[in-house]
Design brief:
The complex is a heterodimer of chains A (556) and B (230).
Chain A (H helix, E strand, L loop, with lengths): L5 E2 L2 E2 H18 L12 H11 L8 E3 L9 E3 H7 L17 E8 L3 H12 L7 E4 L16 E2 L8 H11 L6 H21 L13 E2 L9 E2 L5 H15 L3 E3 L4 E7 L4 E7 L6 E11 L23 H8 L4 E2 L4 E8 L13 H4 L3 E3 L13 H14 L4 E2 L5 E6 L1 H7 L3 H5 L1 H8 L10 E10 L2 E3 L11 E3 L4 E2 L10 H23 L5 E2 L1 H12 L18 H5 L6
Chain B lengths: L9 E6 L2 E6 L4 H7 L19 E6 L6 E4 L9 E3 L21 H7 L11 H4 L7 H10 L2 H8 L7 H5 L6 H16 L4 H11 L4 H9 L2 H10 L5
Parallel strand pairs in B: 1-5
Antiparallel strand pairs in B: 1-2, 3-4, 3-5
Helix pairs in contact in B: 4-5, 4-7, 5-7
Classes of the chains: A alpha+beta (556), B alpha+beta (230).
Chain lengths: 556, 230
Amino acid sequence: MSRIKLIRGYPEGMRESIELVEKTREERLKHPYKETFDFLTLEEREEVLQNHHPDYKREMKRALKIGPNKGDLVPHEVADILEAHSPVNPKDIDLTDIDYESDILIIGSGGAGLAAALWANYSGTKAEDILIVTKLRFGDSNSKMSQAGIQAADRRQDSPMLHYLDIMGAGHFVNDPELVKTFVMEAPFIIRWHEELGVMYDKEPDGTMVEDLIGGLSRLRVHCCRDYTGLEIMRNVIDEVQNLDISVLEFSPAIELITDEHGQAAGAILWNMETEEYYIARAKSTILTTGGFGRLHIQKFPTTNHYGSTGDGLILAYRAGAKLRDMDSVQYHPTGAAYPEAIVGLLCTAKLRGRGAQPVNRFGQVFVNPFEPRDVESAVFIEECYGKSKGVETSTGMRGVWLDTPMIDILNGEGTTEKAFPAMLRQFNRQGVDMRKDPILVFPTLHFQNGGVVINVMAETTVPGLFAAGEVTGGLHGKNRLVGNSWMELQVFGRRAGIYAAERAKEAKLGKLTLNHLVKYEEMLKEAGMETERKSPVLLPEYRGERAISHALDIF
Amino acid sequence: MSKSGEAERKVRVYIMGQECEVPFGLTIMKAMEYAGYKLIRGAGCRGGFCGACATVYRMEGDYKLRVALACQKIVEDGMYLTQIPFTPANKPAYDVEKLAPSVNVFLEYYPEIAKCVSCNTCTKACPQDLEVMDYIQAALRGDFEEVAQLSFDCITCGLCAMRCPTEIVPYNVALLARRLYGKYVMPRAKHVDERIKEIEEGKFDEETKNLMDASLDVLKELYTKREIEK
């Protein structure tokens, strides 16, 4: 990169475009920003998605050759982890030497895993009979990164039915209605639980929740804690798990599930990433809360996701025989940072649009309603940048559109950005950009795994004894998730997984432990004629420099 | 060292003492990865929200130990880099149901806060630029609101605790304060309780059933025609 002179964080070329944005701002401010551009009809949505959404590129997918979802089209990156060998040879594993014995094993320590642990405990499973295992630090997850908030239809102007309709419409009407119903009806209950824990939601002085209207919603419904919503809820549930003294094993991801001779899930093989030894964890109920797959970088997109989001749960469940759904569908969040380079792909919260930041093109023109569902909004952004070439190009060749963030303070009063978006403000300040004075450049970024492991309302997968909750699952969101519904999903179905796993553990009897499912999976790979050296789960993405990798020796 | 052209600007850093050249514009985290480190500890969300990568660094020729989030800070010539894998901090167990927001709570669970010498090292160590010392002083006064508000953007990275000369763990003191403030001091949302009551009384059952039974066409029409709140 050459030494480009920056003016308040932006090079001259981008400054010229910012001047155009400033010129149109006054005129744009004369019209209510929610009404300046009509919503697309369902037909228009379909058209822009077909033409510009990455999910609709057939060549970026292939049909799975093996397993319960054989024939389903999935992104190549997902097929790569599903059509791969287990990292372990069953012959090397001694299943009779149990390291950890518990009623409930929870794999993953994000919002869903911790809700499961707490509600299993509230339902009578003793803390010492619950084990949480996690790949990185306790609590590290996408859950912590959630900014915009969490949905629950709890205002008088709102209703669970409207929440239901919003979800179905955004999800292209293929969502599992039972999951959606359970979700919308229990969401307000979760908000009250959070208040009882001590979560500091943004509120009016009389206790009324501050709620936002964000893309795809018909009502103001997104509750927030500044723009650290996920962090704040996580701090509370982490503290609660620690106070109850529930065991946690860090840096020890599950690398395979264990089944018993009757085909029930019976725990997992864990792998200590630092000592490189394996542990056998036997459990009567196993709960998968491993999150999503952003770090697989589908179609080479940058991602908003946590370092550990490599889709581990998908392959663990799939090898054990669990059915998946909607794995063809990936969420690209419309507003990922497109500049400065150091933060490309990181999230610029949807709440920015909720509070008045308007997306505009290189010429400062409005080209989309800021409140479309995410897939539609993203597709229109991509069309503007590549179909119509009205985006802004950065020095690294990245294209993006402006999000006119100075409008937030103008519309809501000076100090609003500082108060409502401290995380965003820091993020850009650290790179020399003041989003209160200048717009920020955004482009869609890989954000969420819409599909996943099939579950019912009891969070049971199709494998007996295996429960799942959160981003690793599919069904609730159909083919496109709404803002604020992931955090609520973690809580509603994490809680349910904990409760029903606890119930099952009271009666379940485990037979002899086996890894038969791995032997079978290996046979399936062979029968399908798949010759590959790939192994999965991959656990962590590969970011080492080329030279370091090409000179690495695996000799000791 | 560079394979692809001398025009590409490089930055010279020292990773745990070892001199390395890395491309311009990388964060501390990406620079270490570029140099060949596969990170296990000291890397988390990679977006500034989790505190896993909080670390210290020093500039060549300068005595000062600076702080940063490795996922956010761009490397500069002459930086001495390292990672901090773990913070061995004290966190007592408590039951929030049985506590009250009083000054005694802090002194009971974190009596060491009384040893604060107001040196402000914690504040200087905060990569979020929070007024850490001020909130510890507020805790000593029993001012829950002040502690909660000043500490709200804390990502629990642990640097304040590692640098405090009197071994206070500010971020855990703040956590206790926020939980009690959120639970006991902030007003509850009455509309949430009202909605829960309506749901429990079955107010929405019939309409929900109708929605679930509706044909796709009816559902699409209801969706398209629903009014968007302004």
